[in-house]
């Protein structure tokens, strides 16, 4: 099996998932709309004190991003499982973990990337200083792929369940907590003008570790779910 054939399979699967996501534009918009609405409505509930909004702003953005990612996780393998293509996918001659990585990347491109793009506007709404916005963007760039990678393992374990949403939340949310803690702390640290090298290094390590381990764990979980 040549490298070219594997890269072609990867790119074709990525393109397929992106095309299917584009055809379901209503579902595609749900995570971004949820992210915007939760972030925009939060200041209405706590009042108009700029200092208070600035203090909770990083946490609000990251909790909204986490929940928006969780909202879209179930669709990662659901349609493939329902139409039987997931079984063919598992019988491929190519490494399943690499093909799984293509689906995870497609999920991030249609859910995580829009959150990354819209975040600077919501940072203004939450009175986050402009000096901390680059750190916010960097935490989203490092952290949202981790959400997709970790979430793929939970989705693979619950894809065979008709109502696996609650179980998926119980499996995935505890694993999301470290990302939430370090990403939020990085933005808060940047607001007060302290270097954020430590937090960003930990997020980078989480991304590398998830990138190496999550596709293999997801492939194994899919075999368990389909057995």
Describe the structure.
With 227 residues, the protein is mostly helical. It has one domain (3-226). It has 9 helices and no strands. It is a multi-pass membrane protein. Required for the export of heme to the periplasm for the biogenesis of c-type cytochromes. It is found in: Cell inner membrane.
Number of helices: 9
Q: What's the Cα radius of gyration?
A: 18 Å
Structural class: mainly alpha
Overall residue-averaged pLDDT value:
87
Largest sheet: none
| Strand portion | under 5%
What keywords describe this structure?
227 residues, mainly alpha, 9 helices, 0% strand
SSE topology sketch:
Elements: H1 3-23, H2 25-46, H3 50-73, H4 75-83, H5 85-90, H6 96-125, H7 133-158, H8 165-191, H9 197-226
Helix pairs in contact: 1-6, 2-3, 2-6, 3-6, 3-7, 3-8, 6-7, 6-9, 7-8, 7-9, 8-9
Quick take:
This protein is mainly alpha-helical and 227 residues long. Helix content is 86%, strand content 0%.
């Amino acid at each position: 099996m040549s490298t070219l054939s594997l890269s072609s399979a990867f790119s074709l699967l990525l393109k397929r998932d992106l095309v299917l996501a584009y055809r379901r534009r209503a579902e595609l918009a749900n995570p971004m709309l949820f992210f915007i609405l939760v972030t925009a409505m939060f200041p209405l509930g706590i009042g108009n004190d700029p200092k208070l909004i600035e203090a909770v702003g990083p946490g609000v953005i990251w909790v909204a991003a986490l929940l928006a990612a969780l909202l879209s996780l179930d669709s990662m393998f659901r349609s493939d499982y329902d139409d039987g293509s997931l079984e063919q996918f598992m019988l491929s001659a190519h490494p399943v973990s690499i093909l799984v990585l293509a689906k995870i990347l497609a999920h991030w491109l249609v859910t995580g990337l829009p959150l990354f793009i819209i975040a600077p506007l919501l940072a203004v709404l939450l009175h986050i200083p402009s000096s901390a916005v680059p750190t916010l963007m960097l935490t989203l760039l490092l952290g949202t792929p981790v959400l997709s990678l970790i979430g793929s393992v939970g989705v693979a374990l619950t894809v065979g369940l008709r109502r696996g949403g609650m179980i998926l939340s119980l499996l995935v949310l505890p694993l999301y907590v470290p990302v939430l803690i370090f990403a939020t702390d990085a933005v808060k640290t940047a607001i007060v003008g302290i270097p954020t090298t430590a937090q960003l290094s930990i997020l980078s390590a989480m991304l590398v570790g998830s990138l190496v381990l999550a596709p293999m764990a997801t492939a194994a979980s899919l075999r368990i779910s389909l057995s």
